[in-house]
Amino acid sequence: MKIRLPFTVRRPVLAFGTQGKNTLCFASGRTARLSPIHPEISSPEGFFAFKRSASAFLKDKPRILAYDLHPGYLPTSFALSLRGTFLHRGIQHHHAHIAACMAENGLSNHKIIGVAFDGTGMGLDASIWGAEFLICDYAHFRRAASLRQIPLLGMEMAIRQPWRALAAWLYSAYGEDFLKLRFNAVKKIKQGDWLILRKMYHAGFASPQASSMGRLFDAIACLVLDKASGGAEGELPRLLEQKAASCTEHLPPYSCVLKYKNGFYEIDPRILLKSLVRDLLKGKSPASVAHAAHAGIAAALLKTCVVLRKETGLKAVALSGGVFQNNLLRGMAEGLLRGRGFTVHTHRLTSCSDAGVSLGQAAVAHFGG
Fold this sequence. Notes:
Blueprint: E1 2-15, E2 20-22, E3 25-34, E4 38-40, H1 44-58, E5 64-68, H2 74-81, E6 87-91, H3 93-104, E7 112-122, E8 128-136, E9 141-147, E10 150-151, H4 156-160, H5 163-174, H6 184-187, H7 191-203, E11 209-212, H8 213-225, H9 235-245, E12 257-261, E13 264-268, H10 270-281, H11 286-312, E14 316-320, H12 327-339, E15 343-345, H13 357-366
Parallel strand pairs: 1-5, 5-6, 7-14, 8-11, 9-13, 14-15
Antiparallel strand pairs: 1-3, 2-4, 7-8, 8-9, 10-11, 12-13
Helix pairs in contact: 3-13, 5-8, 5-10, 8-9, 8-11, 9-11, 10-11, 11-12
């Protein structure tokens, strides 16, 4: 794929993307070229395809190599292993998401409000980010707001087993009483497993703090669908979106609390979760509850952007990250933002998922970020 850039890259950049849904991007002059998606580079076949794409781009003699900050990602390790006169640039994951959206929309190097909702990305503070509001241009960013953090119980295991996110969020909202909630998804959490996870929750063992919107949607989906597990990553949230889209009787949007402390805003969704639990136990339809949850998160996004506009004067918003593959959520957010006078930019050419990150890495690296 070729993308016309809104700036001229004078020192060619090769960006190596991220671990999941990997692409590489070579940027030179006014053109960026993206490789095909390498969906499973942790497999021998997938890594061979990745190396083949990298070797082809390296023949074009890049001067700058850009990669994700996560030290455990294979593309990052590969980029750092290359010898030569390259300049190396580690790029923050969510900054790259927003930069990709900016680049494909032809935006110049001016500040914007970037909203990046995804599963996980390495933050600058040793925690995992995943629901970020950035005040940024291509060269710089400031993290202005995020979702409340909770422990990612078991790290990668929390991605493969959605009930772990459910347990963490409900424990944060209800304490030990969450085990009394009358949901099959809760009943399937074994007492022995929870005793171990509770220790991990408090000790932080293999459980970094995470502001992941993807994991919050996992927890909501477990409750609404009353399932403790799904198939591939994102399957339960996809089913949740389908359930919400089938809604015929709309409930008012659930509320989140926007808190401010030390120059930073935090979206706390625990009231949303309690409202959702209350309505499900009252017998409200899962479709209505799912729709109200989507609407509540979109409303929290709008509220945060309005506050940031008052502080900065910025009126343009870029939406990126894999959670915005949820068409219902993205449509709600766009409608609310445009209704309040924002200009909204979304992905039109590249994916809002990690498949588009390499384009953003190349853009940020070009501007010296």
